Amino acid sequence: MITLVVRRVVPLAALALVLGAVVRTQRVPIVISDTWFHLRFGEEFLSGSWSLRHPGHLGVFDTADWIPTQWLPQIGMAWLDDHLGIAGVVFAGGFVQLLIAVALYLSCRRAAAPLPAAMATALAMFGASPGLSARPQLLSYLLIIATTYAWLRTARDGRARWWVVALAWVWPMLHGMWPIGISISVVAVVGIALQGDVRGRPLLRLAAIPVLSLVVAALNPLGPAVVRSVFDVGSRSAYFSEWGPTDFTEPAGALLAVVVALVLLAGLRSDPVPWVPALLALLALAWALFSVRTTPVAALMLAPIVATALQRLVPDTGPLSRPELASVVAILLVTSLALAVVSAKRASEEVVADWVDSRLDALPAGAKVLDDWSAGAYLLAEHPDLELVMHGYGEVFTDDELARNADLVRLEPGWDDLLADLDVDVALLDPDTPLGYAVENQLGWTRVEGDDDFVLLTPPGS
Q1: What is the distance between the alpha carbons of residues 165 and 172, in angstroms, rounded to a whole number?
Q2: Cα–Cα distance between 280 and 417 in angstroms, integer?
Q3: Is 350 left (phi over 0), alpha (psi -120 to 50) or beta?
Q4: How far is CA 375 from CA 15, 68, 393, 430, in A?
Q5: Using CB atoms within 10 A of its CB, is residue 436 exposed (0-12), middle (13-18) or buried (19+)?
């Protein structure tokens, strides 16, 4: 009886705890959250102000040609905000995170018993936690789980799963991480070839999947321009911390490093070497090393491989049964209902002080505002009639404009001349930042109102 509880009940309880933790962390996005960007962009598409091939600009201070690689979920987020308010957006973001946890468990369960599957799911969710917020990248995470699962199954039975190509077609409409899916397919095909179980025409059929995936990715409403967008992001990565190197001293990064090392050690010591899992683990490590933003990708890719490694420590309990699947669905439904309650309750949470929105609402349309880089996302969404100098959506800025913003933030020599050239009407800045302090105390701008988070300033003589 005790053994049955440990093998069957404890894993489901652990999964419920993981989903409960997801529900508990959901709240209205903070002022620096990228969620606000996507609400603004989606509203522009919904209203017809922007088109996919020719999207507009957020203001006079960003003039780059750019490609909207997240337009479909952005439209969905804006629609939810229009009809259900921010509570709908919070619920949607949390629900996709619940789906990610359930998808991880089910994919791990195909390779291992319930207990290893639950352990691997918990580890992956913790490793991916820095990227779990109400953003379109959550959909990329789901597709990464599905693609990894498909190829691990193919490595076992040799069957081509052509639905991976369908995922590759829809992926560029959802988020810019679509090349990661193709990288998984390429590495898996190489691993299958090294294993030697599939040869000749069957191997060529498998090799056609990543090729077709690349072809159909370019057959989306944006066309081949989505390929160019990958390189556009790379050219501006120096200005954004999430594109910087992963910090493996942080808890999530440190755990990920340990997991990768253990997986590779266990896999490469096996005889014969399971080439597909081993190469996918190496690919996950490469994505973890690539940037902070792709570290969650590694955690999600590793989950079923970790589950397989942990399976060696416990007895096999057989395939996923209908009662177990029904239990997983029930846990998802219950936590989804709890999420709906939490989302509605927290929808009234304050993002900024009331005076900030009131003062900005009183400004005339088209007023130029010197703002904090990090606060730009919220201001873009809630005050679309204002012209903001800077914000964190780098694709819409030229390299020169990003350099200008960086020079202002860092108070590089000549920053005051740059500010004078911008001819802004007001400044809304954090008084504790170097820029906020310098504008008020060195340039002598007048404080209209302020608190510990923001201060509204006007230029001398205005």
Answers
A1: 12
A2: 51
A3: beta
A4: 35, 21, 11, 9
A5: buried
Residue 312, classified by CB atoms within 10 Å of its CB into exposed (0-12), middle (13-18) or buried (19+), is: exposed
pTM of the model: 0.93
C-alpha neighbours within 13 Å on the C-beta side of residue 411: 9
User: What pLDDT, on the 0 to 100 scale, is given for residue 197?
Assistant: 85
Q: At what angle do helices 200-217 and 163-174 cross, to 10 degrees?
A: 20
Please state, in angstroms and as integers, the Cα–Cα distance from residue 276 to each residue in 180, 192, 282, 426, following that order: 16, 6, 10, 57
Q: pLDDT tens for residues 411-433?
A: 999 999 999 999 999 999 999 99
Closest to 77 in 3D by CA, of 109, 44, 43, 123: 43
Tallying the residues shown for the chain, one arrives at 462
How does pLDDT run across 37-92, given as a tens digit for each residue? 999 999 999 999 999 988 989 999 999 999 999 999 999 999 999 999 999 999 99
- Is 111 in contact with 308 (CB distance < 8 Å)? yes
Sign (positive/negative) of CA torsion 233, 181, 169, 204? positive
Strand partners, 449: 456
Contacts of 255 (CB under 8 A, 6+ apart): 123, 126, 127
Positive or negative: CA dihedral 34, 39, 45, 49: negative
Q: Is the dihedral of CA 370, 372, 374, 379 positive or negative?
A: negative
